[in-house]
Amino acid sequence: MARVIIWGGTGLTGGELLRLLAGQEAMELVAVTSRRRAGQPLWTVHPHLRPDYPDLLFTAPDEAEGVAADLAFLALPHGSSFPVARRCLDRGLKVVDLSADFRLRDRSLRESWYGPGGAPQELVERAVYGLAELHRRELGQADLASGVGCNATALNLALFPLARAGLLETVRAECRVGSSEGGATPSEGGHHPFRSRALRIIEPFRHRHMAETLQELDLDASRLTMTVTAVEMVRGIQMAAHIGLSKRVVEADLWKLYRQAFKGEFFLHLTPARPAHLRFPDPRLVLGSNRALVGFALADDGRRLLVVSAIDNLVKGAAGSALQAANIMMGLDERQGLDLRPAYPA
C-alpha cells in the first residue's frame, strides 16, 4: 500500500483529494499538513469527511518532513510548491503537484503568464503535464507530475481530437464557471452577496489557463481567446468553443474522429445528437465525478463548429486528474478511487 502525504489540506482541492483518497484502497493517508490548523482534527475543516477520518489530525509542515511516505500531493498556492517538491523528490517520494508551478515547460511562456521567478527549469523539465488522456505513457515513467488548470482541462479534452487532426484554425472559448474555482478564501468579487445570481465576466480575452492549451494543443496565441464568466454554480465548468476549421468537413467525419479519440478512455464521453436538450452537456451531469462530457454541432458551411464540454472543476479539473496521474505513476489502475457516479439532479 502506498503511503501518502497531502501538503496543504485545508483548501478546496485538498479537501477533494481527501474525499477521493477515502475510496482509494491502495493508498494510505499518513499525514495532511496545515501550519495554522496543526493538531486539529481534519473534520473541523472538512466536516463531511468525519466518518472517513475520525481521528486524523493536521500535521505541521516541519513535522511532515520526517514522515515516511511514497507519494506526495501538493495542494499549495502557486509559487509555494516547488521547494516542497524538491525536498520530497530528494527523499525518494513521487510528487503530484496541483499548483501552476510545473505546468508550463517554456520559461518565457511561464514568465509571460505568471511573472518572473518560480520553479527551477530543471524541475520544470522533469515534470510531466498531469492530464492522463494526453500524457498517459509519460506519466508511467514520471516521478513528478504537474497540476492541470481546470479551464484548460475543459478546453483540452474537448479540442485535442481536432488539434491532432490539424483542423483548428481559430478558437474562441468561453468558460462558465462555478464559485469554487475561486478557492476557499473569499475575494471581493467572489463574495456571495455580490456573486450570487450574477453573470460576471472575469476575463474577456486571456486567462492564465489558456497558456496550457497553447502548450498542449500546439496553438499560436493569435488563434485562441478565452473568456471566463462567473455563473450561479458552486461546482462545474461548461466550456463552449466557437471554432473556425482549417477545411470543410461533414458531421459524420467529426463523429468518427471523436469516437476514435475517446475510444478506451474511461472518463471521456460524447453526448448524443438527440434529444436536442442533451446535445450540449450541462455540468450538473458530471458533478462529483471524474467524467468529462463533450458535445458538438457543425454549421451548414462545414467550416464553423461549436464544441461544448462539461467537467467538475474540483474533480476532473483538479484533484481527480491528480489522483488519476498518481495511480499511473504508482503502477495502479488509473480508475482506483475515481469510479464515481455523478449525483443528479444537483
From TrEMBL:
Domain Semialdehyde dehydrogenase NAD-binding: 3-142
One BP annotation, GO: L-arginine biosynthetic process
Catalytic activity: N-acetyl-L-glutamate 5-semialdehyde + phosphate + NADP(+) = N-acetyl-L-glutamyl 5-phosphate + NADPH + H(+)
UniProtKB keywords: Amino-acid biosynthesis, Arginine biosynthesis, Cytoplasm, NADP, Oxidoreductase
Gene Ontology CC annotations of this record: cytoplasm
Compartments, record wording: Cytoplasm
GO molecular function: N-acetyl-gamma-glutamyl-phosphate reductase activity; NAD binding; NADP+ binding
Pathway assignment: Amino-acid biosynthesis; L-arginine biosynthesis; N(2)-acetyl-L-ornithine from L-glutamate: step 3/4
One Pfam family cited in the UniProt record for this chain: Semialdhyde_dhC_1
Superkingdom to which the source organism belongs: Bacteria
Alphabetized SMART domains for the sequence: Semialdhyde_dh
EC code(s) of this entry: 1.2.1.38
Main location: cytoplasm
Residues at the catalytic site: C150
S-adenosyl-L-methionine among keywords: no
Record's function text: Catalyzes the NADPH-dependent reduction of N-acetyl-5-glutamyl phosphate to yield N-acetyl-L-glutamate 5-semialdehyde.
NCBIfam families assigned to the protein according to its UniProt record, in alphabetical order: argC
Family: Belongs to the NAGSA dehydrogenase family. Type 1 subfamily.
Identification of the protein by name: N-acetyl-gamma-glutamyl-phosphate reductase
Gene that encodes it: argC
